[in-house]
Amino acid sequence: MADEQLLDKIRSLSDLELATLLCLVAREHCLIGTLPDYVDELAEELCLVASKTFNLTPAIINCHSHATLDEFATGLLVPQPARGGPPSPSHTRSASPYHLRHEPSSTTGGPSSSGGSYFPSPAPPSRPGAFSPRIGPAAIVPSSPSTTTHQPAQQPQIANFILAKNLHLAPRAVQIQALELLRTRRIFTRTSVQTAPKQFLFIAIIGAPSPTQARVTPHLNDFFYLSHWHDVEKDGLDHLDAELSRPDDNISVASSDSIIKRSSSGLGPLPDHEPAPQPHMTEDDISLLSQLTTLACVDVDVLRYQMNVVSHLRIHRAVVGGVTPQATRCLGNLCKSLAALHGLGFVTASLVGLAVRKVYGHRIVIVGEGGMMERERSVQWGSEGEAVGAVMGGWG
Predict the structure, then answer these.
(1) Which of 241, 176, 230 is nearest to 208 (CA)?
(2) What is the C-alpha to C-alpha distance for residues 362 and 215, in angstroms, rounded to an integer?
(3) Which residue, 200, 210, 217, 126, is CA-closest to 163?
């Protein structure tokens, strides 16, 4: 069971922070929906959640109907800071095996000891330009990297926290590429293969009129661990409101005409005189919750109740699809994670009911969506589709 200090941290989290924490504990990904007018603000709020609460590096990808695979792959990467300064004194090994070991060292100014050589040191040449019997011209000596004072910037890497705005508007090829990234935790670019970091979270932000319409392509939709609907007018944006209330606020609001934009909040390196802020939820806290999730017990009666709920959804006359084996696996894991977050070592029936709403909210397809009313049982037996639609009005 988690200690009281960790439980106090969990109780102080907002709904967006709880959804992020559940995904980090399970090492899964999620889908968050909101009204289309608040997609940009929600993305900025999640950036602040990533940098301030979990100390992760966020990146925003603004998807649209003409997005390309190159744009998607580029939006995942964030630049790494250059490592400047003098080299470490331990880096004295030559860059080339052809470096003459009897030559004076560039760091010590004297000859290197013969004990460090794999082969006996040959006799020095008698004149400039003479050839050594083993390794060629004595005058040609590669320069050692120990004389370099600054190293070039590292290659860009995949960010820890990816926010894909309006992913449902992206072409099918881009969404399939996103699915491959989530499955294999790597992506192929034109020049290299980029691997996702250890802590990696991909959140699809969907702007939709209602929670049941916040979806992406079927296979990618089924791969998301859970879904959450955030009502900005009702729930608010805590971090963004706090930042905007400051007079020296430097938060950049995402513009709708940009293709790909990364958040500037929490991404830049801090000055040397300013200490790094302590994250609200540390990596040790997340690791502890992951261990408690694996140790949570499920009684046979609770497991039977969970399977009864799944069976009821699968055979319900209003449900066309979405109750998949992947969803059943996610339901079991989420129930255990919720038990750990509540400070319990076992799963209760109420936690199962809470997990069902989060797991199946974006998966279940209701009869009548997408012109599938003819697949309803009463319609197949001769009932009119309009009558069945009137009876099922408001479901889902």
Answers:
(1) 230
(2) 6
(3) 200
Buried-exposed string 140-149: b where 16+ CB fall within 10 A, e elsewhere? eeeebebeee
3-class state of residue 388 by DSSP = helix
355 closest CA partner among 394, 302, 280: 302
Give the residue from 303, 277, 373, 363 showing the smallest Cα distance to 327.
363
- What is the b/e burial string over 282-291, where b = at least 16 CB atoms within 10 angstroms of the residue's CB? eeebbebbbe
* Global confidence as pTM: 0.73
Sign, CA dihedral 161-162-168-173, equals negative
For residue 280, CA distances in Å to 5, 11, 21 come to: 12, 12, 11
* Cα–Cα distance, 314 to 221 (Å, whole number): 17
Q: What is the pLDDT of residues 158-195, one digit of tens each?
A: 999 999 999 999 999 999 999 999 999 999 878 888 99
Which amino acid is located at 220 in the chain?
L
Beta strands in 223-363, from DSSP E residues, in sequence order: 226-229, 319-321
Low-confidence ranges of the chain (pLDDT < 70): 1, 81-153, 247-279, 368-377, 381-386, 388-389, 391-396
Q: What distance in Å separates the CA atoms of residue 47 and residue 53, rounded to the nearest whole number?
A: 10
CA distance 220 to 275: 40
**pLDDT tens for residues 312-366?**
999 887 788 899 999 999 999 999 999 999 999 999 999 999 999 999 999 998 8
